[in-house]
Amino acid sequence: MDFAHLPDEFFRISEQLMNRRKFFHGVGAVGLGAMAAPLLLSALDPTPLRADERESSAEAASEVAQAKDTVAEIATAALIAEDLATTFYYNGLVGNVIQDPSLAGSGGSATHVTSQGNVGNVNYIQAALSEEIAHANLLRTLLKIPTAGKDPAQTFYFPAGTFDSIGPFLALLDALENAFIGAYLNAVQEFGKQAAWVRSQEMARRKHDDTYSPEQLVYLSKVSASIMGIESEHRVLGRVISNSNPANNRNYEQTDNITAVYNGANSAVKALTPFLTASTGPAYSLGTALEQQGSVSLPVAGNPPSF
Questions:
Q1: Is the pTM of this model over 0.90?
Q2: Shortest CA distance to 99 belongs to which of 89, 83, 110?
Q3: 203: domain range?
Q4: Is residue 289 part of a domain?
């Protein structure tokens, strides 16, 4: 499917999101562990719930928030997240942190890894930069935004010292990727819900003005899952750089306490606030990252999944 053939629904949403200036509210994955099977069985059990087993007010609020999310809102939130990631990885490659022994080594750079550095680790960051740019380009096409200069967020703010040494850099990498994973997991669920709702309206032969077909919504869910998989790779490779073993330390990726993409108190949008707020720390330009990325990025092949 070509995103150019999907309906246009973006400038209003982009402007709303820029005005809200929210997206990164805490981190901390919730372990599933031995609870996985009971939770899955409970979710799939058709037996009516007793009054004391019905969803909590928080669960109900999350469902309300998800129901409000539109395709354009989800895609716009994701675009800002990908632009944030692009800016983050670029500055990691050009900041002082690149001279850490776990990256290019003392006196090294993204394009010159010393004998004391680690070429593979630098390549991880270079490839991640290219992948985040590719994701943003795809979302921009969906939203029919002509150039990156028209994206709703052009400047991002990071805590002082983020790009000076390896500890703060990798800590933020882990936090960001966990949030991105949570956002895309929610997007998969929300697009699936929307597809089911539209299909039910069609089957009931009711009139509706839904902009997207069930097939398009299912495809968007598939694309979200494919991007989420790459963000999961980034999380693990960050742990490789930090020598956190095992780097692949989860049976299942988590939502990072994010329960909706755009709307609600625990949305991915709610979580973006610090990175769009000047009080967080120094400002970094998306435009600069995109203009200069060719000098430090590593090309990566691959296209979105087929329709």
A1: no
A2: 110
A3: 59-295
A4: yes
